[in-house]
Amino acid sequence: MAVCARLCGVGPARGCRRRGAAREQRRGGAADSEPDTDTDPEEAGGGGGAGEEDEDEERIEGGRPAPPPAEAGPAARAPLSLLELPPELLVQIFGSLPGTDLPSLARVCTTFRRILRTDTIWRRRCREEYGVCENLRKLEITGVSCRDVYAKRINPRVKSGRFMKILPDYEHMEYRDVYTCLLHRYRHILGLWQPDIGPYGGLLNVVVDGLFIIGWMYLPPHDPHVDDPMRFKPLFRIHLMERKCATVECMYGHKGPHNGHIQIVKKDEFSTKCNQTDHHRMSGGRQEEFRTWLREEWGRTLEDIFHEHMQELILMKFIYTSQYDNCLTYRRIYLPPNSPDDLIKPGLFKGTYGSHGLEIVMLSFHGKKAKGTKITGDPNIPAGQQTVEIDLAHPLQLPDIENLRDFSELSRIVLEVQEQVRREEQEEEQRQEEEDRSQQAASQPAAQPLGGEGAKGEETAAGAEGVAQDKAPASQPFVLPMGVISRNEDYPRTCRICFYGTGLIAGHGFTSPERTPGVFVLFDDDRFGFIWLELKSFSLYSRIKVSFQNAEAPSREAFDEMLKNIQSLAP
Ligand SMILES: [Zn+2]
């Protein structure tokens, strides 16, 4: 490892291994008996290390007094070996290295190994790499600081004293254990995920929260209140119940945390399993479970929902999703990358989907197009499919407010643009064919024509961008045409700009899917709408204002790849 080479390869440092070994001999090798393995930072600092310590005072293990002046040579010189540095300084230096480099550092010599037992090093690694800001020793006094006590609450039974062992042993816990056995071990599941629940999908954010890793499921607010904040509930949590042993608990149901299991299947995929599904059952049986689910999911009772078709859809969702309560697989998703040219900031939105209720849609920009991808879905259009596509090269000029009420007038305008788009696509195809033919005719690799094509593409993209920027500050009155149904009458009455777009519709079970013409309406930075011409209905979308952790895409390509994957996996 580079770190070792740098630390050990020069000067007297070479002697450190010998000195260490000699000391080991003297002490009969009692201190460190753990065998070295290669991968985990777990064994950095070795075992042992138990003993009383002051929480605020830095305890440094393996500190060695500086060599006497006689050893230091004729003239006073700057220290050449790291071992000659004061231990406090070594703690500082080691604490600034990535936690994954520390195991190899611990193998350099026993002094390093002992210094690496200093818990402030690991506390700093927990804080800098995973954002942990709890103080272990103070935790029991102040209570577990958390956003939602419910998620972390220790099972009430514990308090009686009979089950004291179930309480996490914070007294003897060390940051080294938190780093190695919890954070490092489960680092691959941190981030944003979509559960595989057939067409319904979902949104899960796995985060480090205090000394826990928690999987929060995010749910849209109750239909049709798109502007309300997201709801969230914990699906699982992982923490150290005792030293060196992370416990996975299922949080599903209403009986508190119970035994669960997590398996990292492959890169960007993991699954959870519940080992005690009896904790999900209610004393009132399925009836009570359904009523509770309905109240949570929809905020009402079945009798409140007069619409018969909607009742069927709701019942179907309950039956389908409750099959997944014992085992779930998650696939990684990323938030869309943004660029300064985007019409608005891309991201996640809540949208109205008629009888299906509110669904989560991801808005992303791709040159002249913007895409709305379903993160949650329904039996008609499943999660992962592209629900709307916005043609940023074709802004729509809405009629005056008096004529906007007239559906046929709006319909005429949209269909005209649809015809124009069709013509342009045909021309583009022909141009492409001609280009291909001329390329085949030319024996030379055609550098010239390609350059020309690129230039033209840039031109149109710039055109679309210009339109967006010109229209951004202006606002115009907006009202839905007569006959267009909206779940929410509370939509904005002014808009900034409209574009031609298409919306995906399909029969039950995603049968005969079809892209149909529509109008994308941008209201403000956080809200947009879509008029589905053929359905004569309107969807209102409102931005999800949650700062999800570990959700950035590593690159534009990784995001595009993810989008392609979730679409192809959609049932
Ligand atoms: Zn469970």
Automatic annotation (TrEMBL):
Pathway: Protein modification; protein ubiquitination. Keywords: Ubl conjugation pathway. Residues 12-75, 424-472 are annotated as: Disordered. Residues 439-449 have a biased composition (Low complexity). The keyword Magnesium does not apply. InterPro entries: F-box-like_dom_sf (IPR036047), F-box_dom (IPR001810), FBXO31/39 (IPR045048). The keyword Endoplasmic reticulum does not apply. It comes from Apteryx mantelli. This is F-box only protein 31 isoform X1. Residues 79-125 form the F-box domain. Gene3D superfamilies: 1.20.1280.50. Belongs to the FBXO31 family. Residues 33-43, 426-436 have a biased composition (Acidic residues). Pfam families: Cyclin_D1_bind (PF12014), F-box-like (PF12937). Coiled coil: none annotated.
